[in-house]
Specification:
The complex is a heterodimer of chains A (501) and B (316). With 501 residues, chain A is mainly α. Chain A has one domain. Chain A is globular, with a radius of gyration of 22 Å. The longest helix of chain B is centred in the last third of the chain and has 19 residues. By secondary structure, chain B is an alpha/beta fold. The chains are: A mainly alpha (501), B alpha/beta (316). Chains A and B meet through helix 3, strand 1, helix 14 and helix 19 of A and helix 2, strand 2, strand 6 and helix 7 of B.
């Protein structure tokens, strides 16, 4: 293990305290719909300026990793992802909560998050420089194909109503085109509203599309929000550990996917958890259970999104390029602290780097007890608060959360409008996830396409640029596999017609 | 009527001057029109402790990103003009944006009180690039028009402007590929997806020996990049960059504007602060309130001329 001597340095009482405090603060902020990991880190950054660089980094890493895990609570209990990383956790988490297994789902999320976090941190510790080199091989064209890959997953994930899923995805793509184009600067679909010049914000869309319909349905139906089918006593830890052990292949695969997507600057937790979910479902023997409360779905998404934490630090520390939005804030904090990131960081300031990485391990391990306790408390309070208190509190949070995105009422207005739209669409069987994914992936696909086109034309042929780069070919192969797999599978498993009469 | 309103203004200013003799005495709300982690944020973070050092007040930094800064700038004049709401402003943004489209504010409506530093434009290439000097790059671009690609942050941004101006000065044609923010532009640069990047001295300092700086748009070389020649040395008259300053709501009394301008000036002269800024690749400038009108007139004329050449000025 490189820099093991720094493990001892990481274990000071102050650093331990910061790690616990960071995980608790992060988990709570991440659990509130609309308050994201980026915000949790940004809000708490000034507190770290007075600290030693390594302690500050440990606190920030702990907040970040806690917030990504905390996002699962709202996803499971309210069907609203607390952070964009938890979008895919709603697919199986909420159905589990509906049937009375919300506590099990949260314990599973905790175990998966810790596993993913440890795998991501291990990659960061052992392989950061080569992984950063790999990340740089992804150019605009690869980001374009990666986004297309994400879009094909919408089709694959919305089985039963593929058409509705695709229409939802298209709505999301159209929404992503609103505002000032990222590349080119054209103004599109703003209807002369200045508040739309900045486009539709993903977080406000997330809150509106998921949370508002849930709130309206809560008010419209007399049933309690979640039924309690059993006495809430333990954490159901043993049961959860059993499930997790049986799914160790899934956990390992999802954690690696999470790390690898995490190292790509700009991709982040929402895409990694989606890809991991898609893969888990593809290889599962019970693929048809996915989306109906399959524990493996939660294990896949939650291990993948926490693995992006370690993965995202790879380009941040090695190249000085933030891997995920929270990393950008942490990078800014590093600069203010006077730490220069870059290839020389690992050799010249190895003490800070390794103290930080071991601190991240520490925070991730601490997340297990802390997460279980907070998770149980969150579950108990959500199932026991009367609806009359639950609905207004969550509604209040949606307003606060959407305002906090940019400290601006524009995003709150968007949130309300999109929420009403989602409720209406929900009447016709459209779900929020394809829309949000279209919104997130549309932006990535568009800039990737335009940038790839410009570079390709400068080199002589845009078409060659898109179709002949080795990594592009690999991603295109995955896209074809995802699209054709259901067909191939049904071909193979279909009973062969008898050859003799 | 006019003289009456003037009288009212003067009275207000005097009254405010008396009331706020010890400005600032509480927390100033410092709005950053971009997200956390960017260069505007970092410079504000670096200024923050000096507000405490030099006054009995402090600052709280608040982010209002959106539409390349326009969201926050279009709202600043509706904030109370008591000196406790201030906002970071950026050039060329606040000149170019209103020229291109209706963004909800006009350049002259922003009450800038100080420009405190700028990030000079710089051309950087990957360390392994075949272009050892600016001359190599210009020669290659001259042979194959359009084939040399530069990444940069944003469309019609400071980077874009610099690329356009340099192309004109050098008589070459290159392809500008806009990315979302400096981070994404750097990724493309380090991954060698592009031939080079139009970027800033700060980026060159931050990326260190992963990149080679071929030219900086400064009068003299930057102290942190002694091996990077200026464009002027190489025969191109290019001195430009992205400037950062502070503005207040228009309704802020003149005395407070003056006090704030003096305060920022004081912070900008603190040797420790200057060192921190220059270590990160920033270049200090001092444009206090008294020189503001002349400075802005000059900038507006210069950016306006380039914008018209680029054809990005909106049709009336």
């Amino acid at each position: 293990m490189p820099g093991i001597e720094f493990l001892i340095k990481a274990l000071t009482p102050l650093n331990l305290l910061l790690a616990v405090g960071g995980v608790v603060a992060g988990t709570v902020i991440g659990a509130l719909p609309g308050l994201t990991a980026t915000m949790a880190v940004a809000v708490l950054v000034p507190l770290t300026f007075g600290m030693e660089p390594a302690s500050a980094l440990i606190a920030l890493g702990a907040i970040y990793t806690g917030a990504i895990y905390g996002g699962a609570y709202a996803a499971v209990l309210l069907n609203t992802p607390g952070t964009p990383s938890a979008i895919a956790t709603t697919f199986d988490g909420y159905p589990m909560a509906k049937r009375g297994d919300g506590d099990l789902a949260i314990t599973l999320a905790c175990i998966a998050s810790v596993t993913g976090g440890l795998v991501g941190a291990a990659f960061l510790l052992l392989l950061a420089p080569p992984l950063a080199k790999f990340a740089l091989k992804f150019g605009p064209v690869e980001y374009f194909w990666l986004a297309v890959f994400g879009l094909t997953l919408i089709a694959a994930l919305s089985e039963g109503s593929v058409l509705r899923g695709l229409i939802g995805g298209c709505i999301g793509l159209l929404l992503s085109a609103m505002g000032t184009a990222e590349v080119g600067g054209d103004i599109r679909y703003t209807g002369d509203f200045k508040s739309l010049l900045g486009g539709i914000d993903v977080i406000s869309a997330l809150i509106g599309l998921y949370c508002v319909p849930v709130l309206m349905d809560l008010v419209a139906t007399p049933d309690p929000h979640l039924k309690l089918t059993h006495e809430v006593a333990g954490f159901r830890l043993k049961e959860a550990l059993n499930i997790a052990w049986k799914a160790k292949g899934n956990l390992a695969r999802s954690s690696v996917i999470g790390t690898l997507v995490g190292i790509l600057p700009g991709a982040g937790g929402s895409i990694s958890s989606l890809v991991a979910y898609g893969e888990a479902r593809r290889v599962s023997r019970n693929a048809s259970n996915f989306g109906k409360g399959e524990p493996n779905g939660i294990l896949a998404t939650e291990s993948a999104n926490n693995a992006t934490v370690g993965g995202g630090f790879v380009p941040t520390l090695v190249l000085g390029i933030p891997g995920t939005p929270p990393d950008a804030v942490i990078l800014g904090a590093l600069l203010v602290q006077g730490i220069r990131t870059g290839p020389s960081l690992f050799s010249e300031q190895s003490q800070i780097v390794y103290t930080f990485i071991y601190g991240l391990f520490l925070a991730t391990i601490l997340m297990l007890p802390v997460g279980l306790v907070i998770g149980r408390y969150a579950f108990k309070s959500i199932v026991s608060i009367p609806k009359a208190a639950l609905v207004p509190s969550v509604a209040f949070l949606t307003i606060i959360g959407s305002y906090a995105v940019h400290n601006n009422a524009h995003e709150t207005q968007q949130m309300v409008v999109l929420g009403l739209m989602a409720w209406v669409l929900g009447r016709f069987g459209f779900t929020a996830s394809p829309i949000v994914l279209g919104l997130i992936l549309g932006t990535i696909a568009e800039s990737g396409f335009v940038q790839g086109y410009l570079i390709g034309n400068a080199k002589g042929s845009a078409l060659m640029e898109f179709l002949t780069r080795p990594l592009s070919i690999a991603i295109i192969a995955f896209i074809l596999l995802t699209l054709l797999y259901p067909l191939l599978k049904s071909r193979i498993s279909a009973p062969k017609p008898p050859s003799h009469e | 009527m006019k003289s009456l309103s003037k009288l009212v203004l003067v009275t207000m200013a005097v009254a405010a001057g008396v009331a706020t003799a010890a400005y600032p005495e509480k927390t100033i709300n410092y709005i950053i029109s971009f997200g956390p982690g960017g260069e505007s944020d970092i410079s504000a973070r670096l200024q923050e402790p000096y507000f405490k050092k030099y006054t009995s007040g402090s600052v709280a930094i608040q982010y209002k990103p959106g539409a390349g800064g326009a969201t926050a700038w279009s709202q600043i004049n509706s904030a109370p003009g008591d000196g406790y709401t201030i906002i970071g402003t950026n050039l060329p943004h606040i000149v170019l944006q209103p020229l291109q489209k209706d963004v909800g504010y006009k350049t002259d409506e922003l009450a800038n009180v100080y420009w405190f530093h700028f990030t000079p434009d710089a051309v950087v290439v990957p360390a392994e690039s075949p272009y050892k000097t600016l001359k190599d790059l210009v020669a290659a671009a001259g042979k194959a028009p359009g084939a040399t690609t530069f990444s940069g942050s944003g469309t019609n941004s400071a980077n874009h402007l610099a690329q356009q101006r340099f192309d004109k000065l050098a008589g070459i044609k290159t392809t500008y590929v806009p990315f979302k923010g400096t981070g994404a532009s750097n990724t493309a640069l380090l991954g060698k997806q592009v031939s080079g990047a139009w970027s800033y001295t700060t980026v060159s300092v931050q990326l260190g020996n992963q990149v080679r700086c071929l030219g900086v748009a400064m009068e003299k070389r930057h102290s942190k990049l002694p091996n990077c020649p200026t464009f002027k040395e190489q025969g191109y008259n290019l001195v430009s960059g992205a400037y950062r300053g502070i503005a207040v709501p228009k309704s802020t009394p003149a005395t407070i504007q003056k006090q704030l301008s003096d305060l920022i000036g004081k912070i900008n002269k603190d040797p420790e602060f200057i060192k921190k800024m220059e270590d990160k690749g920033f270049a200090m400038i001092d444009v206090p309130l008294s020189q503001m009108d002349a400075f802005m007139a000059e900038r507006k004329a210069e950016y306006g001329a380039i914008a018209r050449e680029m054809g990005i000025v909106k049709k009336k």
